[in-house]
Amino acid sequence: MGADSAKRMRSDGERSRERILETAASLAAVDGLYRLSLARLARATGMSKSGVFGLFGSKEELQLAIIDRARSEFMNEVVEPSLIARAGVERLGALCERFLDYVERREWPSGCFFASVAAEVGGRTGAIRDRIADDQKQWVWLLTENARHALANRELEFDGEPELLALELSTMLTGADIAYLLHGDLGILNLIRMSIRSRLMV
Amino acid sequence: MGADSAKRMRSDGERSRERILETAASLAAVDGLYRLSLARLARATGMSKSGVFGLFGSKEELQLAIIDRARSEFMNEVVEPSLIARAGVERLGALCERFLDYVERREWPSGCFFASVAAEVGGRTGAIRDRIADDQKQWVWLLTENARHALANRELEFDGEPELLALELSTMLTGADIAYLLHGDLGILNLIRMSIRSRLMV
DNA sequence: CCTACCGATCGGTAGG
DNA sequence: CCTACCGATCGGTAGG
Question: Are B67 and B132 in contact (CB under 8 A)?
Fold first, then answer.
């Protein structure tokens, strides 16, 4: 019964953590990772500030937990659905299209969560920057592998290494995200869609 | 003599403002426009907090003044030197190269000041966002005009409107800036340099 | 998980 | 331009 109650308490804590994290993510979506405060998060969830604090241990742990949540969401909405497409140029196109759809949907009002946080922490050091940099690297790696596959099989014409193609695509996607959310102009996303589509045709 | 003293006081204020602004810009370069505080700026300049406050009227006015300063710097270091090149594909290339040099120099440790602020304020509204959006628009317009000139004179092969070429270039530049400062990897800037050069060859 | 508190800091103001 | 102050808010802690 002691073990039972310990287990129940732990899972209560986890469920509670999950609930707080959902609210935290939606607050961070508006204000950014840094302007989110424990007090406002507590008010928004009906908990005490120290209750929220205790669930995460520090503000930085809370920020890292939000990043993990955003990463799962990105995997579910951008990466996973693209795995239906065949590796190579098809999957490369799917990843780009899904990315732009995800930006257009604006689940994060600040655009792609990772792009906005990257710009925020780019000039600094610390755990948050490192986590974002790792995630970004994995995304570019995913693009690179599919570019490599596409070029090896001559699925498209491109005069350069797969790394270059992947970097061109990823920078255009990030740049389009920022330009779109700055101007609120859907035309920007559509122009970049066109550009990427025509670039990925044989 | 009344007029004389009024003029001297005003120019004293302007000189003082200019001096404060220089320190403010260097603080904002590290911490961003929003994490800059009046108290830290006052400490860094040896003035009282209310003295600094009085020179600008509000924190937002201070932020806008920093934007203006960053804009002048961008004009001096990126735009002006590119005007030596002939309008068209040559000037287009010069603008991109100067932009990447400016990012590489890291006068703003947060990369291109406008890109990082754009990501910071993209999801919001207000005077700061509007100012940044205007500046960004003028930059893309400058690229577009030179793309138009280049395409009209068949200085390069490109299957699309000048607006599309300008958008491709500007998004790649912004994306490269963010990726570079996130990873601190000069290779990223060099790959994008190569990519843009080969794109702007006939 | 709570109340109650800490010192630090924020933007801004009063009054000179 | 200063001193001296305002209320609000910050991340975090003590103690339960």
Answer: yes
- Any CB–CB contact under 8 A between A198 and chain B? yes
Question: In 3D, which of A52, A78, A66, A41 has the Cα closest to residue A127?
Answer: A66
Rounded Cα gap, residues A52 and A68, in angstroms: 18
User: For position B11, what pLDDT does the model report?
Assistant: 58
Residues B175, A174: C-beta atoms closer than 8 Å: yes
The alpha-helical segments, DSSP class H, found in A106-202 are 113-121, 127-152, 162-183, 186-199
Question: Phi and psi dihedrals of B176, rounded to 5?
Answer: -65, -40
Instruction: Suggest the residue from B110, B138, B172 to mutate for an interface test with chain A (most A CBs closer than 10 A).
Output: B172
Whether residue B112 is predicted with pLDDT greater than 50 in this model: the reply is yes
Query: A72: burial class by Cβ within 10 Å (0-12, 13-18, 19+)?
Result: exposed
- Main-chain phi, psi angles of A77, to 5 degrees: -100, -25
Residues of A in contact with B120 (CB under 8 A): 32, 116, 119-120
Instruction: Measure B174 CA to nearest chain A CA, in Å.
Output: 5
Q: Percentage of residues in chain B with pLDDT exceeding 90?
A: 73
Burial of B152 (0-12, 13-18, 19+ CB in 10 A): exposed
Q: What is the DSSP string of A46-90?
A: TS-HHHHHHHHSSHHHHHHHHHHHHHHHHIIIIIHHHTTSPTTHH
Query: B12-27, pLDDT tens digit by residue?
Result: 667 788 889 999 998 8
Give pLDDT, residue A5: 43
Can you tell me the distance from the alpha carbon of A70 to that of A11, in angstroms, rounded to the nearest whole number? 22
What pTM was computed for the model?
Answer: 0.92
Of the pLDDT bands very low, low, confident and very high (cuts 50, 70, 90), residue B10 is low
| B178 to A119: CB separation less than 8 angstroms, yes or no | yes
Q: Which residues of A2-25 are buried (b: 16+ CB within 10 A; e: fewer)?
A: eeeeeeeeeeeeeeebeebbebbb
Residue whose pair of structure tokens reads 């203006």 in the numeric block: B68
Of B130, B202, B84, B201, nearest in space to A182 by CA: B130
In angstroms, what CA-CA distances link A171 with A9, A36, A119, A165, B175?
A: 45, 28, 13, 10, 4
CA distances to A91, A144, B175, B186 from A137, rounded to whole Å, are 18, 10, 14, 15
Q: What are phi and psi of B149, to 5 degrees?
A: -60, -45
